[in-house]
Design a protein that fits this description.
Length: 130
C-alpha cells in the first residue's frame, strides 16, 4: 500500500483545495493530510485563518478520498511527519516548487499545478471588495 501525504491550511475550502486533494489521492492508496494549526498560520502570515483548526480539520476529514487528517504544528517538522505516517509520496502545490526537494531521500516529492484563478487570498480579497 502506498501512502501519500500533503499539507495545507484549507481555509475557506474551495475547488482548488478539492482538486489538489483529489489528484493527490490518485498517487497512492491512502491520503494523509496535515492541516496547519492556527498558531502555525499566525506565525507564517501574522493572521489567523477564518475557520479555526478544528473546523478545518472536520471539513477536510469529511472528504471521501481523505483517509487521515492531523494538525501540522511546524513547517520544520515535515520530515518527522513523513516518517511518522510512513508516507511514500509528498504532494505539494507548485507554488512550493523546489522547497521540499531535500525530502527526496525519504519519499518521492511531487509538485502539482495549482488550480488557476482560485486561492483563499483571492476569495478573501473578493469578499472585501463586495
Amino acid at each position: 500500500m502506498s501512502i501519500v501525504i500533503t499539507f495545507g491550511t484549507y481555509d475557506l475550502f474551495h475547488i482548488g483545495h478539492h482538486n489538489i486533494l483529489n489528484r493527490a489521492k490518485n498517487y497512492g492508496d491512502k491520503l494523509v493530510v496535515g492541516i496547519s494549526t492556527d498558531a502555525l498560520n499566525y506565525k507564517k502570515k501574522q493572521k489567523y485563518p477564518v475557520y479555526c483548526e478544528s473546523e478545518r480539520k472536520t471539513i477536510v476529514s469529511s472528504i471521501k478520498y481523505v483517509d487521515e487528517v492531523f494538525l501540522e504544528e511546524s513547517l520544520e517538522q515535515k520530515r518527522e511527519y513523513i516518517i511518522k505516517y510512513k508516507a511514500d509520496i509528498l504532494i505539494m502545490g507548485n507554488d512550493w516548487e523546489g522547497k521540499f526537494d531535500e525530502l527526496n531521500d525519504i519519499c518521492k516529492v511531487i509538485y502539482l499545478p495549482r488550480t488557476e484563478n482560485i486561492s483563499t487570498t483571492k476569495i478573501k480579497q473578493d469578499i472585501k471588495n463586495l
